[in-house]
Amino acid sequence: MKRVTQTALYAAMAVALVATSSLVSAQGGDRGGERRGGPPQEAFDACEGKNDGDTASFVSPRGDTVNGTCKTRENMTFLIPDDHPGGGQNGRGMREGGNNI
């Protein structure tokens, strides 16, 4: 009887582990559901209602203002910071106050 209980316990732990790892994976891992790679949500929000090539800005989670240019790819418009290689208006983004991003 002890062996059956031990086997059942191991099976329950295995099921719990698989269920937990699937849930974490579906929610974006340890990043709280944030997409991995690609622009942050603020970059999409900054360009909402704007066209490809329009300028926009957003405040980063660190409190910095990020200036850039809206770009449309795969029917999604988002901000590419000025200092992003190959992106933005002039390729040299600046935070408010003149500090490089």
Overview of the molecule:
The chain is of the alpha+beta class and about 100 residues long. It folds into 2 domains: about 1-35; about 40-100, no CATH class. It has 2 helices and 3 strands. It has helices at about 1-25, 40-45; strands at about 55-60, 65-75, 75-80. It has a 3-stranded antiparallel beta sheet. A hairpin with a 5-residue loop joins strand 1 and strand 2 (about 65-75). The longest helix has 25 residues, at about 1-25. The radius of gyration is 22 Å and the shape is rod-shaped.
Radius of gyration: 22 Å
End-to-end Cα distance, whole Å, is 65 Å
Q: Count of helices?
A: 2
Q: Regions with pLDDT < 50 over 5+ consecutive residues? A: 22-32, 90-101
Major sheet strand order: 1-2-3
**DSSP strand (E) fraction?**
15-25%
Q: Give the % helix.
A: 25-40%
Number of domains: 2
Would you list the SSEs in sequence order as H and E?
HHEEE
